Amino acid sequence: MSTLLLAEQVLNGLQLGIMLFLMAAGLTLVFGVMGLINLAHGSLYMIGAFAAAAVAGATGSFLLALMAALAAAAAAGALVEMLVIRRLYDRDHLDQVLATFALILIFSEGTRWVFGSFPLYLNIPDYLAGPITLPGGIQYPLYRLTLIGIGLVIALGLFLLISRTRLGIQIRAGENDREMIAALGVDISKLYTIVFALGAALAGLAGALVGAIQSVQVGMGEPVLILAFVVIVIGGIGSIKGALVGAILVGLTDTLGGLLLPALFAQFMEASAAQGMGSALASMLIYILMAVVLVVRPTGLYGARA
Amino acid sequence: MNREGMLNAAVLLGLISVPLWAWAADEPFIITLTTKAAVLALAGVGLNIALGLGGLVSLGHAAFFGIGGYAMGILASHAQTFDPIMEAPFLIEGTKSMPVIWLVAVIASGLAALAIGALSLRTSGVYFIMITLAFGQMLYFFAISWPAYGGEDGLSIYVRNGFPGLNTLDPIQFYGIVFAILLAVLFLTARLARSPFGLALNAARQSAVRVETVGLSPYRLRLMAFVISGMITGLAGALFADLNRFVSPTMFSWQTSGEIMIFVILGGVARLFGPVVGAVLFILLEHLLGGLSDFWHIYLGLLLLLIVLFARGGVIGLLAGRGVAHD
Fold first, then answer.
1. Is A113–B298 a contact, with Cβ atoms under 8 angstroms apart?
2. How far is B155 from chain A (nearest CA, A)?
3. From A110, which residue of chain B is nearest by alpha-carbon distance?
4. Are the CB atoms for A110 and A41 separated by under 8 Å?
C-alpha cells in the first residue's frame, strides 16, 4: 500500500471528522445547556442541504446556497424550539426521544412531500473544483480541503465564542446552574432559543457542505446523526473539546479502518473472504472504539458529569 | 375488574374474534395484518420489560429483533439449500423447524443482549440511549456489509418454516401460533412483574440507592431485565421473519427501534397490554392513513407528538385513567 493512498485517506478521515464535529457541536451544546437529547438534529442537517440545493438551483451561486442553508436551518431550529422543544426541557429523556423522533417523521415526510423522493444534486462551484497538488506530491480535491479549512475556522470561532464572549459566558453558566443565571436576570428562554438555533445552523451548514459531495436526499441526516452520537459519547457529553477530539477520532477510524482492515485480513485469508470480512468489521470499528472508551471512561474522554 | 382490566379483556377478545371473523369471511389479508400486529406487539412486550419495568430507555432493540430474524433466515436458508452451516469440528445443519429456530433466536438474542447490556449499563441516562442506538446501528452496518447472507438485499425463504402438526402456510394456523406465544409471554410478563425479581427491578428504577442499601445490585437486576427483554424481542424477530418469509438489514435499522418504542408509548409505558394496544393501533393507522396518503408518516408524527406532549400514559392511560400505572 502506497504512502500516497494512506495520506489521502488520512485527509478524507479528517474531512469526515470535521463535518461530524459541526453536527456533534450542536448536539453537545444543546445537551450541555438544556439537558435535551435531540434526535431531530439530523433533520436540520437535511434541511440545510435541501435549502442549499434549492437556492443553488435557482441562483447558481454556491455562497448564496450556503447562506440559505444557514438561515433555513437556524430558522427551522428556532421555530421547532419555540413550538415543541421548549415543552420538553422538564420531561424525562424518554419523552424527549419520542417527541424528537416524531419530529423526524414530520420533517422527513414533509421534505419528501415538497421536494419528491428523488435525490437533488448540489454542484461544487468551479473555483473549488478539481484537485490540487499538496507538498509531497499528493493530489487532493480542493473542495474537500476547503471543507477541512472551513470546519477548523468554525471550530476556532466556536471556542472563541464560548470562552471570550458574553453569550459564551451565559452558555457556560447555563450548563452549570440554570436557576442561578435565570435569577441573575438572563432571559433563559431566549438563551435556549439562541443556543438551539446556533446548533441547528451548524448542522445545516454541514448538510450543505457535504451535500455537494454526496446526493441531497430525504433521510440523509440520520446516519450522520448516529455517528455524531458516537462522537459525543466518545468525547463526553457537553464538551466542545471532546466533540472535536471525538469527531476526528471517529473520522479517522472509519476511513482508515475501511482501508487497512481488508488489507490486514488479506495477510492470512484468501482475497475475497478478506475483503468481505474486513469491510464488515471495518463498518463496526467506530462502535468498537466507542465500547472501548466506555469501558475505560464511562463518561467519555472529556465528560465531567456522571 | 377495573377499567384497565376490562380494556385488556376487550383487546384480547378483539385479537381472537377479528381473525376468526376474517377466516370465516375468507379475508386472509386481514388475518395477515392481525398476525403482523401480534408479532410487533410481542416485540413491544419485550421492550416494555426494559423500558417500563426497568426504566431503561433502549433505542437499540432492533438489534435483537434483527438477530431473531437472521437466526431464522440463516437456519432456514441453509436447510433450503441443504448446505450445512458448519462441518468441522462437528456438523451443524440448517433447519426448517420453528421450535428449533425460536430456541436459537432466543439464545442468540439473549447472548447479544448480555454483551450489549453489560457494556451499556455501565452508563445511564442519555449515554444509555445513545449507546444502545449505536450498538443497534453497528449490527445494521454489519448485516449490510456481510455478503454471506444477502448483504443489503436480504434473504428470501421460499417456504414458511414448519411446526409439528400444523400447516403454517395457512394464515389462521400461523396466527394461532403467534397468538399463543403472545399470550404465553404476556402471562409470563405479568408473573415476572409481581415476582421478587420484578419488584426489585421496579424498586431499582425508582430508587437505585435504596435498592443498593438493602444489598441488591441494581446493575445485575437491570442486566437481567435487559437480557429477558432482548430474548422476547428476538423471538418476535424470528416470527416476523417467518411472517414475511424474508429477512433484511432493515430489521436492524434504528427506525425499527423507534417503531418498537412507539408501540410501547402509544399504548402506555409499563402497562401489561400497552405494547399490544400500541401495535394494533400502529398497524391500523398504517393501514388507514397509508390508504389516504403516501405521506402518512406526517400524521403519525403529529399524533405521536400530541401524545407525548399532552397525553402521557398513552391510549390506555387516556381510557383507563392515570392512577392504575405503577409509576
1. yes
2. 17
3. B298
4. no
pLDDT (tens digit per residue) in A240-257: 889 999 999 999 999 998
Which among B59, B263, B294, B306 is the top mutation candidate for probing chain A, defined by the most A β-carbons within 10 Å of its own β-carbon?
B59
Interface residue ranges in chain B relative to chain A, Cβ cutoff 8 Å: 51, 57, 59, 119, 122-127, 129-131, 133-135, 137-138, 141-142, 144-148, 254, 258, 261-262, 265, 269, 295-298, 300-302, 304-305, 308-309, 312
Where along chain A do its domains lie?
Answer: 3-220
Instruction: Note whether residue B179 is domain-resident.
Output: yes
- Domain contains B177: yes
Q: What is the pLDDT of residues B263-277, one digit of tens each?
A: 888 888 878 888 999
User: What gap in Å lies between CA B168 and CA B240, rounded to an integer?
Assistant: 13
Chain B CB contacts of A295 under 8 Å are 119, 122
E-strand stretches of chain B:
155-156, 246-247
Is B265 in contact with A104 (Cβ distance < 8 A)? no
Looking at per-residue confidence, does A131 or B225 come out higher? B225
Closest-CA distance, A97 to chain B, in angstroms, reads: 9
Task: Tell me which DSSP letter residue A141 carries.
Answer: E
Q: Read off the C-alpha cell for A268.
A: 492470512
CA-to-CA distance for A217 and B49, rounded, in angstroms?
36
Q: Are A250 and A14 in contact (CB under 8 A)?
A: no
CB contact under 8 A, A233 and B141: no
> Which residues form the domain of B182?
3-21+29-320
Domain count, chain B: 1
Cα–Cα distance measured from residue B153 to residue B147, given in angstroms and rounded to the nearest whole number: 9
Residue B327 lies in a domain: no
| Chosen from B127, B219, B253 to mutate, greatest number of chain A CBs within 10 A | B127
CA distance B21 to chain A (A): 34
In this predicted structure, the answer to whether residue B322 has a pLDDT above a threshold of 70 is no
Burial of B37-63, coded b for 16+ CB within 10 Å and e otherwise, reads bbbbbbbbbbbbbbbbbbbbbbbbbbb
b (16+ CB within 10 A) / e for B237-249: bbbbbbbbbbbbb
Helix (H, G, I), strand (E, B) or coil at B163: strand
Closest CA to A31 of B72, B221, B20, B129: B129
- Residue of chain B nearest A303, judged by CA positions: B127
Does residue B316 fall inside a structural domain?
yes
Judge whether B7 and B323 are in contact, CB under 8 Å: no
pLDDT at A121: 84
Inter-chain touch A87–B309, beta carbons under 8 Å: yes
Q: Which three cell numbers stand for residue A17?
A: 471528522
Kindly tell me if the per-residue pLDDT of A277 is higher than 80.
no
Give the 3-state secondary structure of B37-85: HHHHHHHHHHHHHHHHHCCCCCCCCHHHHHHHHHHHHHHHHHHHHCCCC
Number of neighbouring beta carbons within 10 Å of residue B155: 20
- The Cα–Cα gap between B28 and B230 comes to 31
Q: pLDDT category, B321, cuts 50, 70, 90?
A: low
Mean residue pLDDT of chain B comes to 87
